[in-house]
Amino acid sequence: MECQWHQVCTRLVEPACGDRLSDQLQKSIRAMFDTLEADIVVVQEAKIQRKDLQDDMVLIPGWDVYFSLPKHKKGYSGVAIYTRSSKCAPIRAEEGITGILCPPNSSTTFRDLPEDQQIGGYPRPGQLSGEVDEATLDSEGRCVILEFPAFVLVGVYSPATRDESRDEFRHAFTEAMDVRVRNLVAMGKEVVLTGDLNIIRSELDTAGLVEQLRKEEVSLDDFFSSPSRRFLNQIVFGGRVVGTRDEGREEAVLWDLCREFHPTRTGMYTCWDTRKNCRPGNFGSRIDYVLCSSGIKDWFIDANIQEGLLGSDHCPVYATMGDTVSHNGTTVPITDVMNPTGMFKDGERQREWTIKDALPTSAKLIPEFSNRRSIKDMFFKKPRATIKPTTATAMPGGQDPPPLTITISTGPEKDSWAQGDLASSQPSSQVTAPPSSGSTLLASPQKPPAKRLAVASPAKRPQKKGKVTLAKEPSKTGASASQGTLKSFFKPKTPVPSPSQEPTGTDNTASATADISTASELLPAELPPEIQSPNQSLKGSAESSAKETPLTTVPTDDKVFDPIENKASWSKLLGKRVVPKCEHGEDCVSRITKKPGVNCGRSFFMCARPTGPSGKKEDGTTEFCCKTFIWSSEWKPSSSASLSG
């Protein structure tokens, strides 16, 4: 699965990944958790569907997980939140930002559930512009919301700015996110918003912004006036708001935790362009955030990025809470307000987390993963003993009744017809005990059904006549008449003697005789006697035809093919492509132009080194990308020098 990460609780991580969760997390998801040392991990860009979920993504010992996966698009978007059960457990969970979706196995939307089961804060009529309907907004797997007693955690993956065709959806999603967060805060709930927002907040959060805008003749005010950047700067304290605030966004409600701990730090980027290899030179942007409401801002003791953790085009962002926090005017252990009532008290665990504590949206309750039996049960779980007393029958003449039979079965009961088929394979043991003198015997003159008697009989069932049985029957000749052996494809049916050597060998004669005798068994009985016994007639005709037919020789060409010459010619055709050298004297790499215009789709060569901190191509004396640029159509391997431009 690709991933992006963030954490909360004692530590909350937003791991930012952009390759597949099925590729990255599946390999070593538990090792990743150990590296992050997180208690809550928020993952974006899972890029999987429900059918792609596997045991090592869901059934992780000590962890619970909640997914929001795309409903239609394959390998697209996807958000997951993992929680460490020993430290925290949510009390409510939802999928989607608007509340329009339904819990599993229910036709009632989250917003229509009873009030005690709702997280709340759903958009009210008139709060959304309606450019995109709510069902479409929540169909791409972009949001998971968990509620703890302390706060509501909103994990999101906001749409990126690709082209104008997605602007409407992007604006509608950020609008719904803004409304939901503000409604929750207005209800008196604390909120943590974390994830890949795909938004640059200020000029400190991207490399080379000022120079890029100067080339495009765009001012900073115009740049930060776009709808998505206005949303972020109006929802966070200290944001850069151009002009008057929008209606409904008069007040900021969230704090940017990384900037609170590092207000002037430059180069604190979380995402890099991997196609240009910009990460080594740290030419990137900060688009991943951990934001929190004012009531819990003082709970956090640290927030930062983990740029040293590789594996994606993003790096993890984390925020750490203290072991004790101020809640409702008193100081309490963090575990007391991060778990359901009764699970922790004064920091001491009162009971363990069990699968009964999992919420309906937990992935552990998906039918493919629920009700799993432990492999240990196969060896250590004791079989159930079922006592089946047979009906006692009053015997004539005062005879003793039949003994009581107790059957101990190690498997579930089968129907009578199934027991008849599996009588020889089902293990069971019978203990026969004499009847007690005080037992009450019931008169039952009926005899047991004949089928039951057949079940107890150890006789084998008749073997089914199938293809396997027929295939095992021995053939008369040792080989199938309709299908020859593999060896027969590489030798002639009738041996042709060479002119210099007569076929007088004993082995050849025996082989020919065996082939002829095999063929004679397949001939019908109605044929004339001379054909029914072909040992002599066919053998004689074969010898005569061999003598009468002259041997022909295949004319040979005088040209001799040299294998070394052939290898050299193929090497020229399929050999490694010669690429030009850059100013560093190293092989260039091939790229394709994706910028719209007359050159879109053309390939070119450029320096393979990473882009430097300035974002520009530099001369060949530095360790970063030089100015070498050659169109592939203009490159000729015979050229002695590369072109620069």
Question: Topology, please?
Answer:
Elements: E1 4-8, E2 11-16, H1 21-36, E3 40-44, H2 55-58, E4 63-68, E5 79-84, E6 92-95, H3 134-137, E7 143-147, E8 152-157, H4 167-186, E9 191-196, H5 209-216, H6 220-223, H7 227-235, E10 254-256, H8 257-261, E11 271-272, E12 284-285, E13 288-293, E14 300-305, E15 317-321, E16 324-327, E17 330-333, E18 344-345, E19 348-349, H9 377-380, E20 404-409, H10 416-421, E21 428-433, H11 450-456, H12 467-472, H13 506-521, H14 529-532, H15 534-548, H16 563-574, E22 589-592, E23 603-606, E24 629-631
Parallel strand pairs: 2-3, 8-9
Antiparallel strand pairs: 1-2, 1-3, 2-15, 3-5, 4-5, 6-7, 7-8, 9-13, 10-13, 11-12, 14-15, 16-17, 18-19, 20-21, 22-23, 23-24
If you had to describe this structure to a student in words, what would you say it looks like?
This protein is α+β, with helices and mostly antiparallel strands and 645 residues long. Among the domains are: 6-371, Endonuclease/exonuclease/phosphatase (Deoxyribonuclease I, Chain A), CATH 3.60.10.10; 579-635, no CATH class. The chain has 16 helices and 24 strands. It has helices at residues 21-36, 55-58, 134-137, 167-186, 209-216, 220-223, 227-235, 257-261, 377-380, 416-421, 450-456, 467-472, 506-521, 529-532, 534-548, 563-574, and strands at 4-8, 11-16, 40-44, 63-68, 79-84, 92-95, 143-147, 152-157, 191-196, 254-256, 271-272, 284-285, 288-293, 300-305, 317-321, 324-327, 330-333, 344-345, 348-349, 404-409, 428-433, 589-592, 603-606, 629-631. Strand 18 and strand 19 form a beta hairpin. The model is unreliable at 1-10, 16-26, 403-459, 466-480, 502-543 and 639-645 (pLDDT under 50).
